[in-house]
Amino acid sequence: MSVSVEKLEKNVVALEVTVEAEKFVSAVNQAAKVLAKKVNVPGFRKGKAPRRMVELHVGKEALYDEALDHLIGPAYAEAVIESGIDPVDRPNVDLVQIEEGKDLIFKAKVMVKPEVELGDYKGLKVEQGAAVVTEEEVMEALKSKQEQHARLITLEEGKVENDDTVTLDFEGFTDGVAFIGGKAENYELVIGSGTFIPGFEEGLIGTEIGQPVDVNVNFPDEYHSAELAGKEAVFKTLIKKIQRKELSALDDEFAKDVSEFETLDELKTDLRNKLMKTTEVRVKDEHAKAIVAKVVDNASVEIPEVMITERIRVMLDDLSRNLAQQGMTLEQYYQYTNSTEEVMQEQVRPQAAESVKMDLVLETIAKAEGIEVTEDEVDEEIKKVSERHGQDAALLKQTLIARGELPFYKQSMTSQKTVSFLVEQNT
User: Fold this and answer.
1) Which one, of 54, 56, 51, lies nearest residue 29 by Cα?
2) Radius of gyration from C-alpha coordinates of the chain
């Protein structure tokens, strides 16, 4: 087999592939055997008709089509490897020559990854911000711990306040008629949590235990239930129990109760150290992102539309998986946000284009600088990941191979290694 490469318009190449006549004849003969098992040729049992009779029965064109179905794909894949091109879309294939006794020749026109024109990517001297933890942040972390260890005290009497946990009965009505899904008994609700539609929780503040109260609300125009969207409603409610947080005093006893430390000062020091570690990681991450953003901005590349469209698809697939973990579908999300798939695609388009450009720039720099990830480095990373998730490293690697994900895993590691290189060169 031989391959020639012709550059057409930007980011498009044409591969002219020549397959030896012998291979084509062999493929046609094999196609005849396959078709003989699929069709009924008078006078022959299925699968037993000779090629000449199969060809007379189905026609030469059908015979060639069957042969090409099994020949073009592998030949094109081999041509891609031999030519060293990097396709980003399916090829358009045209037959140039198809005749038994002669070489099969076809031309595959395909979009390839664009060439990146790198700008300055070394010596940019991007300064890293200082990692600072304020006393206010330490106190905020301390108060958060105080909230986590608060006790809920059941009130014998009193009125509902913000942050209280109440148990209530309620039933909702629109135009004097109860609506489906608007009734519950012994429902537990944290006031101020934003669980209910705007106005409901606020309408309960000041209510006493055992006091029936009508809460008037307006359903949002973009509410997921079309029957209720934009409508006025009244909820008849009854508070049955009020629970209020009781916070412990921030003193040495509190430190002993919630930690391994003996004093509040020791607990605050520990919180400050943990905050500092988190802040240092965040500052380093922001520094790396700033460097990469500048390097990407310095580069220029014309991105094929197909690459942006594919990245948008990947982003929406990721969103769909994240929503599924929260028990929501993408269609429900569109309803809640008063959006559509088309609107969402346009919203994420700029981010998708920038993401593709960043990948292309990092890939080009990796090639220019000879940055590669070794098999040992891949195995070491897989080992770390498996240990974090309590998995067997060998099994995880086999799973990645079986799913065809190992090349992407290696590519991601190469990108991270390239980012580390850029940080070293520009700090």
Assistant:
1) 51
2) 33
- Residue 64 buriedness (CB in 10 A; 0-12 / 13-18 / 19+): buried
Distances (CA, A) of 175 to 169, 179, 180, 329: 20, 10, 13, 31
The pLDDT tens digits of the residues spanning 143-182 come to 999 999 999 999 988 899 999 999 999 999 998 999 988 8
Task: For residue 73, give both structure tokens.
Answer: 């794909």
Euclidean distance between CA atoms 225 and 146, whole angstroms = 39
Amino acid at 143: K
Query: For residues 291 and 422, is the Cβ–Cβ distance under 8 A?
Result: yes
First and final CA of the chain: distance in angstroms? Answer: 50
Residue reference for tokens 């040495």: 252
Q: What angle do CA 239, 241, 242 make, to 5 degrees?
A: 100
Scan for tokens 């209280």, then name that residue. 164
- Torsion from C-alpha of 279, 285, 290, 293, nearest 10 degrees: -150
d(CA 86, CA 74): 16
The answer to whether 15 touches 83, Cβ cutoff 8 Å, is yes
The structure tokens listed for 332 are 């429900």
230 φ/ψ angles, rounded to the nearest 5 degrees:
80, 0
In 3D, which of 183, 15, 29, 1 has the Cα closest to residue 103? 1
Number of H helices and number of E strands within the chain? 13, 9
Amino acid at 40: N
**Distance of alpha carbon 103 from alpha carbon 372, whole angstroms:** 40
What token pair was written down for 200? 């409901």
What is the pTM (predicted TM-score) of this model?
A: 0.76
Written as six digits, the tokens of 36 are 């003989």
* Bridge partners, residue 211, by sequence: none
User: pLDDT per residue over 202-254, tens digit each?
Assistant: 999 999 999 899 999 998 877 777 788 888 999 999 999 999 999 999 999 99
Length of the chain: 427
DSSP states of 281-329: HHHHHHHHHHHHHHHHHH-B----HHHHHHHHHHHHHHHHHHHHHTT--
Determine phi and psi for 83, rounding to 5 degrees: -85, -20
